[in-house]
Write a structure and sequence with these properties.
The complex is a heterodimer of chains A (281) and B (203). Chain A is 32% helix and 31% strand. Chain A is built from ten helices and 13 strands. In chain A, strand 8 and strand 9 form a beta hairpin. In chain A, helix 4 packs antiparallel against helix 5 and helix 6 packs parallel to helix 7. Chain A is elongated and about 65 Å long. Chain B is built from ten helices and no strands. Classes of the chains: A alpha/beta (281), B mainly alpha (203).
Chain lengths: 281, 203
């Protein structure tokens, strides 16, 4: 299977922040969630992927091409939703439609209109009067109105109410029906990603913690409720993180080591929280 | 690149009312003082500089981040901005030529061309600064750019150069051609510098 995204040894330094040695790949036809807390490096990673910034080291391939040096052909197949809609504030939906029609060979006006209607976007209201949710919907409308093969979204679900977030996930699933299409979506609202993602890439402090298939990940870990004695009997290598409370210990443990323990299934959010906030073994 | 030019024109359409009002005031002043050159000079330079002012809207909305994910190269994006400024300048040149013709007669027309060239020269000077430093930081330097011609005149005076004599000795047609060539060269160099700056820019 061809990869829609291939990142290898990606590094970028800014004063006070460094992204180091990031490597992951997204197979075509799949959805990847890029997760991490605020400031982990998700947006930096996306900017490097899009060629908006140049990496200090490593390489990026989007749909087989280097985004920094690729010509316009690659961008004809990209749909991007940034954390803001990035449209000058005086313009309106109709203006953006005209700009996109002039910009994309494969622009589909009917699809644009259908999405705008579905999201109830007003035609003449200037963007400066849009709410955050509406800006996101505008961006999404723009991103999905041409023949896009790779959709990249940076914090697209934040600022949206639960109903629209759910609708967005439906749109993702519709989009991915065509097997040649892929999605990379960064978010810190993990419950959303858990519903639709095939792969989860987790970065923390500019470093990759893991990039794995979601099902493998969920299969791998459980949250075990332990006594101190049970904890001591566990192989420390099998414990990814733990939290102590007045009632005992809760630990993110590899399923293979948790036989006989009281366990709950671990969600993506549990995994992220134990990795970030749990004590180390 | 068509999309980028269209976006700039649409943005400027939103400012059309205030721009037209300013132009109208200048036109009235020109008519009452019977000086076509006044309208011509201000209006041409004003509209050439206008698209650069709209760069601040782009900066605030992070438009470039969106534009660079669209099928447009960095070079085209820069070129588009120059083209918009030149289109605006040419349109205003045509309008002010008519105004000048009506007020000052045909002898005022060469002056329109001089103002157009001055506007293009300012564009050449200011655009790389705006792209390199951002609109806010470049503002002071751009204001200084406006003073460059006056500064040069003052300097020449201090050095005892007889500017009036020099100008009167110049063959006007020859000087105009030389000026146009120089401005065109400055524009080309400016475009190349701007492209170089923008190629390295990160968002």
């Amino acid at each position: 299977m061809e990869n829609a995204i291939e990142v290898s040894g990606l590094a970028k330094r800014y004063p006070g922040f460094a992204l180091e040695g990031l490597s992951f790949s997204l197979p075509s036809g799949c959805i990847m969630g890029l997760i991490g807390e605020n400031g982990a490096g998700k947006s930096t990673t996306i900017r490097l992927l899009l060629g908006l910034a140049r990496p200090d080291a490593g390489s990026v391939r989007l749909l087989g091409e280097d985004p920094y040096s690729a010509g316009t052909e690659l961008r004809e197949r990209l749909g991007v939703v940034m954390d803001d809609c990035c449209v000058p504030e005086t313009l309106c939906l109709r203006d953006l439609r005209r700009i996109l029609r002039a910009g994309y060979r494969s622009f589909d006006g009917r699809r644009f209109d259908a999405l705008a209607e579905r999201f109830e976007l007003p035609e003449k209201k200037p963007v400066k009067d849009y709410s955050r949710g509406m800006r996101m919907k505008l961006s999404l409308t723009a991103a999905l109105s041409h023949d896009c093969r790779l959709l990249i979204l940076d914090e697209a679900t934040s600022g949206l109410d639960p109903v629209v977030r759910d609708e967005l996930l439906d749109i993702f699933l519709e989009f991915i029906q065509d097997e040649g299409r892929s999605i990379l979506v960064s978010s810190h609202i993990l419950s959303d990603l858990e519903k639709v993602c095939d792969y989860v890439t987790f970065i923390h402090g500019g470093r990759l913690l893991f990039s794995e298939e979601k099902d493998t990940l969920l299969e791998k870990y459980v949250v075990a409720k332990l006594s101190e004695a049970e904890l001591r009997s566990l192989d420390p290598a099998k414990v990814a993180g733990l939290r102590r409370s007045a009632f005992g210990v809760e630990a993110l443990v590899e399923r293979s080591a948790a036989r006989g323990l009281v366990c709950d299934p671990a969600g993506i959010e549990d995994i992220m929280l134990y990795y970030l906030r749990g004590e180390t073994k | 690149m068509r999309a980028m030019i269209l976006k700039d024109l649409l943005c400027m359409k939103k400012q059309a009312k205030s721009v037209l009002l300013v132009l109208l005031v200048w036109l009235v002043i020109s008519l009452t003082t019977a000086s076509g050159a006044f309208f011509c000079g201000l209006s041409i330079i004003y509209v050439i500089i206008l698209p650069m002012a709209s760069l601040s809207y782009d900066e605030r909305s992070h438009w470039d981040s969106r534009a660079l994910t669209m099928p447009v190269t960095r070079a085209q994006l820069v070129l588009g901005r120059y083209i918009v400024a030149l289109l605006m300048g040419l349109a205003m040149l045509a309008i002010s030529a008519v105004v000048t013709l009506l007020i000052d007669g045909a002898e005022g027309l060469p002056l329109c061309l001089v103002f157009f060239l001055a506007g293009v020269f300012l564009l050449s000077l200011c655009m790389p600064l705006m792209l390199k430093l951002g609109v806010e930081k470049a503002r002071i330097l751009v204001a200084l750019c406006y003073l460059v011609p006056f500064g040069l005149m003052l300097l020449a005076e201090q050095l005892g150069v007889d500017i009036d004599g020099l100008l009167s000795r110049l063959d006007s047609a020859y000087a105009a051609a030389a000026g146009a060539v120089l401005v065109f060269a400055a524009l080309c160099v400016s475009v190349l510098i701007s492209m170089g700056i923008y190629r390295k820019k990160e968002f």
